[in-house]
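Why does residue order matter? Because the sequence determines the fold. Keep that principle in mind as you read this record.
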Amino acid sequence: MQMVRNFKSAKIQLTLTNSEHPKGVKHPFNNIIEEVTNEQVAQFSAAIEMLTAEKCLDTDIIVTSQVALNN
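Structure:
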C-alpha cells in the first residue's frame, strides 16, 4: 500500500498584539500559495502591521494535505 500526499490548502495565521491585547490575538488569512517564501511572509506581516498599527508576535503557516491510499 502506498500513500500519496497532495496539497489541498494553506493559510497564514498572525498573532498580533496591542495595548488592549498584550498577549496577542490570532488572525488567520486563507488562500496562500503552497510555496510561500520567508520573504513573502515577512512582507505580508509588515503590511498587516502598517494597516492595523499592531505588532506581529508570531506567524504560523498551516498547510492542509489530502492523503490518498493507493493499493
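The helical segments are 38-52.
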